[in-house]
Design a protein that fits this description.
This protein is an all-alpha fold and 154 residues long. Helix content is 66%, strand content 0%. Helix 5 packs across helix 6.
């Protein structure tokens, strides 16, 4: 009985260690965290992720399946978002990924013309965060309350 329980526990430990070692090296702790969340969620339902990504980002399913052989799910989203921001084909970003993947996504973004701290970098973080929170309810502030601007005294 102990052997039966030991095997799943060991597999869980190994999977957690390998997940913890995955680093996207974006140059932003927040973006790395968002990507880890996206990745974990995607791996729980890779088929659903593939369909959602195809619909939301207009990427053909066969292309996504091809990319999943060389990239993590969150990296596909990041590559697509970079391509949108720089207005270049996603294949250009994937080509840079293949060359620079050991250096991380921060270097890939630089190679593609997105500088750390730039408006483009912040847009990239925002787009990725949106995807990471796509299943949660909005926490927006709603309509602002306060003094209404009128015509003044008559």
């Amino acid at each position: 009985m102990k052997k039966i329980l030991l095997l799943p526990a060991l597999l869980l430990l190994i999977s957690n260690i390998s997940f913890a070692q995955l680093s996207f090296k974006t140059g932003s702790v927040e973006l790395d965290k968002d990507m880890a969340t996206i990745n974990a969620d995607a791996k729980l339902n890779i088929k659903g992720f593939t369909i959602d990504l195809s619909v939301s980002h207009s990427i053909p399913i066969p292309k996504i399946k091809e990319l999943l052989k060389i990239m993590e799910p969150a990296e596909i989203i990041l590559a697509k978002n970079i391509s949108i921001i720089i207005n270049k084909p996603m294949d250009d970003v994937v080509a840079s990924y293949k060359i620079n993947k050991d250096k991380g996504w921060g270097q890939i973004a630089k190679e593609m013309g997105i500088k750390p701290g730039s408006p483009e970098f912040h847009a990239l973080k925002g787009k990725t965060k949106e995807k990471g929170n796509s299943n949660s309810k909005s926490k927006g502030k709603g309509k602002k309350k306060g003094k209404k601007k009128g015509k003044g005294k008559k």
